[in-house]
Specification:
Length: about 170
Protein backbone atom coordinates (compact mmCIF):
# COMPACT_ATOMS: atom_id res chain seq x y z
CA UNK A 1 0.00 0.00 0.00
CA UNK A 2 1.37 3.41 -0.91
CA UNK A 3 0.83 6.72 0.81
CA UNK A 4 -0.85 9.62 -0.96
CA UNK A 5 -0.10 13.10 0.39
CA UNK A 6 -2.04 15.83 -1.37
CA UNK A 7 -3.62 19.24 -1.01
CA UNK A 8 -6.65 20.36 -3.03
CA UNK A 9 -7.66 23.89 -4.02
CA UNK A 10 -10.60 25.51 -5.78
CA UNK A 11 -9.79 27.43 -8.96
CA UNK A 12 -12.12 29.68 -10.91
CA UNK A 13 -10.48 29.48 -14.33
CA UNK A 14 -8.07 27.33 -16.26
CA UNK A 15 -4.55 28.86 -15.98
CA UNK A 16 -4.15 29.90 -19.64
CA UNK A 17 -1.99 32.92 -18.79
CA UNK A 18 0.38 30.79 -16.73
CA UNK A 19 0.77 28.33 -19.61
CA UNK A 20 1.36 31.12 -22.12
CA UNK A 21 3.93 32.81 -19.88
CA UNK A 22 5.54 29.40 -19.19
CA UNK A 23 5.02 29.79 -15.44
CA UNK A 24 3.63 26.26 -15.75
CA UNK A 25 4.49 23.61 -18.33
CA UNK A 26 1.82 21.42 -19.94
CA UNK A 27 2.40 17.70 -19.23
CA UNK A 28 -0.75 15.96 -20.49
CA UNK A 29 -4.52 15.71 -20.56
CA UNK A 30 -6.96 12.82 -20.04
CA UNK A 31 -10.69 12.33 -19.81
CA UNK A 32 -11.56 10.38 -16.64
CA UNK A 33 -14.75 8.38 -16.00
CA UNK A 34 -14.81 7.47 -12.30
CA UNK A 35 -17.24 5.07 -10.62
CA UNK A 36 -17.33 3.91 -7.00
CA UNK A 37 -18.08 0.25 -6.35
CA UNK A 38 -18.08 0.41 -2.55
CA UNK A 39 -17.45 3.06 0.10
CA UNK A 40 -17.71 3.83 3.77
CA UNK A 41 -16.81 6.90 5.79
CA UNK A 42 -13.06 6.30 5.49
CA UNK A 43 -12.64 3.73 2.70
CA UNK A 44 -13.50 3.53 -0.98
CA UNK A 45 -13.12 1.22 -3.93
CA UNK A 46 -13.37 2.78 -7.35
CA UNK A 47 -12.70 2.04 -11.00
CA UNK A 48 -11.66 4.47 -13.68
CA UNK A 49 -11.61 4.60 -17.42
CA UNK A 50 -8.90 7.02 -18.57
CA UNK A 51 -8.88 8.23 -22.17
CA UNK A 52 -5.85 10.10 -23.51
CA UNK A 53 -5.70 12.70 -26.29
CA UNK A 54 -5.27 9.93 -28.90
CA UNK A 55 -8.47 8.22 -27.68
CA UNK A 56 -6.53 5.32 -26.13
CA UNK A 57 -8.21 3.98 -23.01
CA UNK A 58 -6.74 2.42 -19.91
CA UNK A 59 -8.51 1.21 -16.77
CA UNK A 60 -7.64 1.21 -13.07
CA UNK A 61 -8.98 -0.25 -9.84
CA UNK A 62 -8.21 1.70 -6.65
CA UNK A 63 -8.66 1.18 -2.93
CA UNK A 64 -8.19 4.21 -0.67
CA UNK A 65 -8.44 4.53 3.07
CA UNK A 66 -8.19 7.36 5.54
CA UNK A 67 -9.05 11.05 5.63
CA UNK A 68 -7.06 14.19 5.50
CA UNK A 69 -3.74 15.18 4.05
CA UNK A 70 -2.34 11.63 4.17
CA UNK A 71 -4.24 8.61 2.84
CA UNK A 72 -3.36 5.04 1.97
CA UNK A 73 -3.85 3.94 -1.62
CA UNK A 74 -3.57 0.77 -3.68
CA UNK A 75 -4.03 1.32 -7.40
CA UNK A 76 -3.40 -1.02 -10.30
CA UNK A 77 -4.32 -1.36 -13.94
CA UNK A 78 -7.12 -3.70 -14.99
CA UNK A 79 -8.30 -4.82 -18.42
CA UNK A 80 -11.27 -3.36 -20.24
CA UNK A 81 -12.99 -6.72 -19.82
CA UNK A 82 -12.65 -6.65 -16.02
CA UNK A 83 -13.75 -3.00 -15.94
CA UNK A 84 -16.89 -3.84 -17.93
CA UNK A 85 -17.64 -6.88 -15.75
CA UNK A 86 -17.40 -4.78 -12.59
CA UNK A 87 -19.93 -2.28 -13.96
CA UNK A 88 -22.10 -4.70 -15.95
CA UNK A 89 -25.08 -4.91 -13.62
CA UNK A 90 -25.01 -1.39 -12.27
CA UNK A 91 -26.81 1.69 -13.43
CA UNK A 92 -24.14 3.96 -11.98
CA UNK A 93 -23.34 7.21 -13.73
CA UNK A 94 -19.60 7.83 -13.78
CA UNK A 95 -18.23 11.12 -12.51
CA UNK A 96 -16.61 12.71 -15.57
CA UNK A 97 -13.73 15.12 -15.53
CA UNK A 98 -10.97 16.38 -17.77
CA UNK A 99 -7.63 16.18 -15.97
CA UNK A 100 -4.84 18.42 -17.19
CA UNK A 101 -1.41 17.88 -15.70
CA UNK A 102 0.99 20.80 -15.55
CA UNK A 103 4.36 21.17 -13.87
CA UNK A 104 5.67 24.11 -11.88
CA UNK A 105 8.93 24.29 -9.93
CA UNK A 106 9.29 20.51 -9.88
CA UNK A 107 5.74 19.83 -8.68
CA UNK A 108 2.96 18.27 -10.71
CA UNK A 109 -0.44 20.00 -10.53
CA UNK A 110 -3.54 18.07 -11.59
CA UNK A 111 -6.33 20.38 -12.74
CA UNK A 112 -9.74 18.70 -12.79
CA UNK A 113 -12.59 20.26 -14.79
CA UNK A 114 -15.78 18.41 -13.88
CA UNK A 115 -18.26 17.84 -16.70
CA UNK A 116 -21.57 17.31 -14.86
CA UNK A 117 -21.10 20.09 -12.29
CA UNK A 118 -19.67 23.59 -12.37
CA UNK A 119 -16.43 22.91 -10.51
CA UNK A 120 -12.71 23.17 -11.20
CA UNK A 121 -10.05 22.12 -8.70
CA UNK A 122 -6.31 21.62 -8.63
CA UNK A 123 -4.56 18.93 -6.61
CA UNK A 124 -0.88 18.86 -5.72
CA UNK A 125 0.78 15.66 -4.50
CA UNK A 126 3.86 15.72 -2.29
CA UNK A 127 6.70 13.38 -1.32
CA UNK A 128 6.18 13.97 2.40
CA UNK A 129 4.06 15.88 4.90
CA UNK A 130 6.77 18.48 5.49
CA UNK A 131 6.77 19.45 1.80
CA UNK A 132 2.97 19.61 1.81
CA UNK A 133 2.93 21.91 4.85
CA UNK A 134 5.66 24.15 3.39
CA UNK A 135 3.90 24.55 0.02
CA UNK A 136 2.90 28.11 -0.85
CA UNK A 137 0.09 28.06 -3.44
CA UNK A 138 0.51 30.31 -6.48
CA UNK A 139 -1.72 33.37 -6.80
CA UNK A 140 -4.16 31.68 -9.21
CA UNK A 141 -5.16 29.02 -6.66
CA UNK A 142 -8.39 29.71 -4.78
CA UNK A 143 -9.26 28.60 -1.30
CA UNK A 144 -7.97 25.31 -0.01
CA UNK A 145 -10.68 22.69 0.11
CA UNK A 146 -8.88 20.60 2.68
CA UNK A 147 -11.20 18.07 4.19
CA UNK A 148 -14.47 19.62 3.08
CA UNK A 149 -16.60 16.56 2.49
CA UNK A 150 -18.74 18.14 -0.24
CA UNK A 151 -15.70 18.49 -2.53
CA UNK A 152 -14.44 14.93 -2.23
CA UNK A 153 -14.84 12.95 -5.45
CA UNK A 154 -16.77 10.28 -3.61
CA UNK A 155 -19.31 12.85 -2.37
CA UNK A 156 -19.65 14.40 -5.83
CA UNK A 157 -20.25 10.94 -7.30
CA UNK A 158 -22.85 10.02 -4.66
CA UNK A 159 -24.70 13.28 -5.35
CA UNK A 160 -24.63 12.52 -9.07
CA UNK A 161 -26.24 9.10 -8.46
CA UNK A 162 -29.08 10.61 -6.45
CA UNK A 163 -29.70 13.19 -9.22
CA UNK A 164 -29.85 10.36 -11.76
CA UNK A 165 -32.49 8.49 -9.73
CA UNK A 166 -34.80 11.53 -9.83
CA UNK A 167 -34.65 11.88 -13.61
Amino acid sequence: MSTEIERKFLITAFPKEQLESEEVRFVGKRHIYQTYLAYSEDQEIRVRKLVDHEERASYTHTFKSGHGLVRQEVEYEISEEVYRQLLMNTKFVPLEKIRTKVERQGLCYEIDEYKQIDLMVVEVEFEDEQAAQAFVPPHWFGRELGQEEEFRNKSLWISLQSQNVRL
